[in-house]
UniProtKB/TrEMBL annotation:
SUPFAM superfamilies: S15/NS1 RNA-binding domain (SSF47060). GO terms for biological process: translation. This is 30s ribosomal protein s15. It comes from Plasmopara halstedii. It comes from the Eukaryota. The lineage of its organism: Eukaryota, Sar, Stramenopiles, Oomycota, Peronosporomycetes. Keywords: Ribonucleoprotein, Ribosomal protein.
């Protein structure tokens, strides 16, 4: 019985010992020329078709609206608005992502920073502090 098994093993074809090669055929996507390429429903010609006046106006508008030329008061307002928007957005995010501890830790750091700034403001300028707390709808004791 063992002799038959030994003969069967010895009679294996040599082809089975060769490595198996698997091929995946790759087809490259078609090349797009500049006149046919588009994204979001706009062709390149549509984007470049703005006149010089429109482009100049857009550049001026960006310069006016950027915070690079803003005063310190405007920068503070923008930072407060961004912080308030972040605080208001987080509870919905936290309900959907219960295991997102990194964001929760970041929020707690922002809340602590806000608490320290409000504490400083209360010490230095009480009427302004009361106005800020009323505007943000906070309870600060």
């Amino acid at each position: 019985m063992f002799a038959i098994a030994r003969l069967a093993r010895a009679a294996r074809p040599v082809v089975s010992s060769l490595p198996v090669v698997r091929c995946v055929s790759y087809v490259a996507p078609p090349q797009l020329t500049a006149d046919k390429s588009y994204r979001f429903g706009l062709k390149l010609d549509d984007i470049k078709s703005e006149t010089e006046d429109e482009e100049k106006t857009l550049t001026q508008l960006k310069a006016v609206l950027s915070l690079n030329n803003a005063s310190q008061h405007e920068l503070n307002k923008a930072q407060v608005a961004l912080a308030v928007e972040t605080f208001q957005r987080f509870p919905a995010h936290a309900q959907g992502h219960k295991k997102d501890h990194h964001s929760r830790r970041g929020l707690m750091a922002m809340v602590e920073k806000r608490r320290k700034l409000l504490k400083y403001l209360r010490r230095k300028d009480l009427p302004k502090f009361r106005a800020v707390v009323a505007a943000l709808g906070l309870r600060f004791t």
